[in-house]
Design brief:
single chain; alpha+beta; 2 domains; four-stranded antiparallel beta sheet
């Protein structure tokens, strides 16, 4: 955790009178497991295995049309099994977070420079999950999209959040105090 804006590159984004309360980065490890992975990993292994068993004979027979069609399922199985962890780790490696007395920032350099901000105000729903490592959500999560979409596989439910940070409860309390000061 740091409280200096200049040495962390956040000064260019701050308004007059705005000050940094907390900065951080997500966990750097490749595999960030969630409870749902207990079901998703075996399913994705079965998917990839069945796709391989279905595609391999078409390669042997020289049936390139069926092999190409089957490759779509094989690639999807490979992504679901391992690629999603690498993709998530890449996005986390290129993300940084800042919490000021007025706003929360998520800066990502994974696929081009992308800055998102969430103004802090007393009515903003804020929650945290985890003890030593976890997430702080600012605003409501989009659970319907999460359940029905690709977010189930990636762990990103569409909420504005500081994901995979150390001491999420501490950051949550800093945000709560900042929200109270805004009233």
């Amino acid at each position: 955790m740091s409280t200096s804006s200049a040495d962390n590159g956040w000064a260019d984004y701050l308004r007059q009178g705005e000050r940094i309360l907390w900065t951080g980065r997500p966990a750097r490890r490749i595999f960030l497991f969630r409870w749902i992975d207990l079901a998703l990993v075996p399913f994705s292994l079965a998917w990839a295995g069945f796709a391989f068993v279905a595609v391999w004979p078409s390669f042997v027979r020289g049936d390139l049309f069926f092999a190409a069609f089957g490759m779509l399922f094989l690639v999807a199985g490979a992504y679901a099994t391992l690629g999603r962890f690498i993709h998530d780790a890449y996005e986390r490696r290129h993300a940084s977070y800042a919490l000021t007395n007025e706003r929360a920032f998520v800066l990502s350099n994974a696929w081009g420079r992308n800055l998102r901000e969430q103004p802090l105000h007393p009515g903003l729903a804020t929650s945290f999950r985890g003890t030593r490592e976890g997430s702080v959500n600012f605003g409501e999560s989009r659970n319907a999209a999460f359940q029905a979409g690709f977010g189930l596989w990636t762990g990103n439910d569409g909420a504005f959040a500081f994901r995979a940070i150390a001491n999420p409860e501490e950051v949550y309390h800093i945000a709560q105090r900042a929200k109270e000061d805004r009233s």
